[in-house]
Specification:
Strand content: 5-15%
Largest sheet: 4 strands, antiparallel
CATH topology of the largest domain: Arc Repressor Mutant, subunit A
Shape: elongated
Order of helices and strands: HHHEEHHEHHEEHEEEEHHHHH
Number of domains: 2
Number of helices: 13
Amino acid sequence: MKMKLTRNETRILKEIAKGSGKGIGDIARSLSISNASFSRTLKSLKKKGLIESEKRGLSKHAFFSETKHSTLLKTLLTELAHVKFEDFLPGSSLEILYFLSKSPLSRKEIVLHTGLSQKTVQTKLKTLREFGIVFSERGFYRLNERFGLLKDFLLEFRRYLNLKVAQEFAKDATILWQEDEEFLIKTSEPKESKIFFLTSITAFHKYGVQLFLPEYYYYFYSQRKKKLNVEDVVLHALLLDPTDTRVIISVLLLLKKQKVNVDYLIKESDRYQLSTTVRNLVNYIQTKGKAKPEYFPTWKEYEAKAKEYGL
């Protein structure tokens, strides 16, 4: 789910942030928005976890919700009430700003991360620079430190949208790891989806390895991947607990049974902060157990378990 706000959404949020006590009808009239359009916009803002509404007396009122990202946005709009956010936040700006809030990027990198066209990125960056939201230096763009609250809002908004997608897939879904629009979840029920891939230890049976029955089902959400590699499944298993001996043995058996791209495994391990664990696995195999962390099985234990699986 993309992070987006329309111009009307931004205008309404700014008006609500003023805390003027106006009812929904009064806000619609003051902003010259038709009732039908205003109703659709409020529904969209509710879906994004930004506002709630209730009837007070004879009129209905809208107010910021208690979600973390909504609270941050309210503070931002209140403290910087003079800033015309409606002139630069709408459209794809939030996606660009989100990635810039994480680190300075070149225009080419922004296109790669966001999936937006070069023309769109160029146009948006020009506007953001004119408003002083973004600075550029030596070909790299960065978020103005003055907008620290905007950075915090963007990060929390992304997390909220990820959780919303996860819980629409499975009501009891818990996110175990996330980066941008990709995340790993656990749920108590098996599900099917084209964008949620069964992974981690619950997918080991597909490769003929199942050392133990997991308590949960694990799924990886991604819109850019069409399938998961065996290396992805291994890394998602290690994410559960890289010091769990049962998980380590299962991974070792899978690595023995399947042809694995070690270079890809090592490269991707950095993304999950598992580089040490993966290098330990590689060294363990290459030294036949001589380089063994405390939580790894002995080489004899590993060989015995491999024999059970006919490996």
